[in-house]
Automatic annotation (TrEMBL):
Keyword terms, alphabetized: Calcium, Cell inner membrane, Cell membrane, Membrane, Metal-binding, Protein transport, Transmembrane, Transmembrane helix, Transport
One Gene Ontology cellular component annotation held by this UniProt entry: plasma membrane
This protein's encoding gene: gspF
Recorded family membership: Belongs to the GSP F family.
Gene Ontology biological process terms from the UniProt entry: protein secretion by the type II secretion system
One protein family per Pfam: T2SSF
Domain Type II secretion system protein GspF: 70-192, 272-394
Protein name: General secretion pathway protein F
Gene3D superfamilies the UniProt entry points to: Type II secretion system (T2SS), domain F
Its job: Component of the type II secretion system inner membrane complex required for the energy-dependent secretion of extracellular factors such as proteases and toxins from the periplasm.
Compartments it resides in: Cell inner membrane
Keyword Protein biosynthesis among record annotations: no
Membrane-crossing segments per the record: 169-198, 218-238, 375-396
Gene Ontology terms for molecular function: metal ion binding
Organism, as annotated: Hyphococcus flavus
Length: 404
């Protein structure tokens, strides 16, 4: 049965908006009048008007929107609202765009008798496989509201970690670019003009000054070519990292880098633990939960090591023993899993492990960035000092010659 978006006036003259299902626009208008509403505007959803299926080329739902949608659905379903009505209510609250279009399309499938997870599967870009797996587990266990709530929490936590990592790097990166720009400008525009004045006297320049002049000449003559080469190499490296063998080797190297490797293990460990807790507590079997949690790990080397964990758990080995043999995630997480298995509270201890790993990441990243920022400032100050000294030394020598 087709769905129609409507705008109507109630008995008090207030504008009402919503959606209803009817065989035709005529029947939809009749239904609105039966509800004491005067139709003002009636149209099919944008997804139907454009002729695009839910998985078409329209833009996907943003990650931030998905968190809000999941939280709203959890509240409505938990309050006893039928799923199709909850989907309609959330869609009407969303701004006109991809989110509303997708939700209305999902609602239609649910009204046709589809399972919620299957309806979401028609748009894999907006609703990733892990998201659908959690929803499917909730439908199977009969606790869809609780699973939606835990899913929203998981999405918020994962997004918070990612946003913190990105936000923390903005200032150091901007500072590094500014420092590089200042030093480059001095080398290109200031040093050559000042040194030209000294060359007019025909005196031999000090060693430090000659070194700076040589660097300045190289930057002026070959700096642009070096910049182009660096851009090309960066693009080539970015594309090379898409190749599984190269990415595997690179990710393995990253884990061995001091501080950075620890941070990467903490981030992936927290994401893995929280996802596993969400899936397992939602009613999914442990092996399926483990496979789903493995997909959220960003480091390909850790993900490959976890393949061994999945295989061993499938053969009957305990999760803690399998994780210990894989030797990919932080030891603290392995100990918490072992304690959770002994106490029969695996989900709760996984959540605690994720929280602790997130706190460790926050602390370590804060310390590392606080050390990085002054290091960049000191580096820029050192470079400027060298340039200033290279200019002052000839001046001092000329003053000495004039005084002699």
């Amino acid at each position: 049965m087709p769905a129609f978006e409507y705008e109507a006036l109630d008995m008090g003259g207030k504008t009402r908006r919503g959606m209803l299902s009817a065989d035709s626009q005529r029947q939809a208008r009749h239904e609105l009048r039966r509800l004491n509403l005067t139709p003002v505007k009636l149209s099919t959803p944008r997804a139907e008007r454009s002729g695009q299926a839910i998985g078409g080329k329209a833009p996907r739902i943003k990650a931030s929107q998905l968190v809000v949608i999941t939280r709203q659905l959890s509240a409505l379903v938990g309050a006893g609202t039928p799923l199709e009505e909850a989907l309609n209510a959330v869609a009407m609250q969303a701004e006109a765009g991809p989110a509303r279009t997708r939700l209305l399309s999902v609602r239609e499938r649910v009204m046709e008798g589809w399972r919620f997870a299957d309806a979401l599967a028609e748009d894999p870009k907006s609703f990733p496989s892990l998201y659908r797996a959690v929803i499917a587990a909730g439908e199977t266990s009969g606790d869809l509201s609780g699973v939606l709530d835990r899913l929203a929490t998981m999405l918020e936590k994962n997004r918070a970690i990612k946003n913190k990592a990105v936000a923390s790097l903005i200032y150091p990166i901007a500072l590094a670019f500014i420092a590089a720009g200042v030093v480059t400008a001095l080398m290109i525009f200031v040093v050559p003009k000042i040194i030209a004045q000294f060359n007019a006297f025909g005196e031999e320049l000090p060693f430090l000054t000659r070194v700076v002049v040589g660097i300045s000449d190289w930057v002026v003559n070959f700096g642009l070519y070096a910049l182009i080469a660096a851009i090309i190499l960066s693009i080539a490296a970015w594309r090379a990292l898409k190749e599984p063998p190269i990415k595997l080797a690179f990710d393995k190297f990253v884990l061995r880098v001091p501080v950075l490797g620890t941070l990467m293990r903490a981030v992936d460990g927290a994401r893995f633990a929280r996802t596993l807790a969400t899936l397992f507590s939602g009613g999914a079997p442990l092996l399926d939960s483990l496979v789903g949690a493995q997909r959220t790990v960003s480091n390909s080397f850790i993900r490959e090591r976890l393949n061994k964990t999945v295989t061993m758990v499938g053969e009957g080995v305990s999760l803690a023993a399998a994780l210990k043999r894989a030797n990919a995630l932080p030891p603290m997480l392995v100990h918490m899993v072992a304690a959770g298995e002994r106490a029969g509270a695996l989900s709760e201890l996984l959540d605690k492990a994720a929280l602790q790993l997130e706190e460790e990441f926050d602390t370590a990243s804060t310390i590392a960035l606080r050390l990085l920022e002054p290091a960049i400032i000191v580096g820029m100050g050192g470079a400027v000092l060298v340039i200033v000294l290279s200019i002052l030394l000839p001046i001092l020598r000329l003053n000495a010659l004039a005084a002699g």
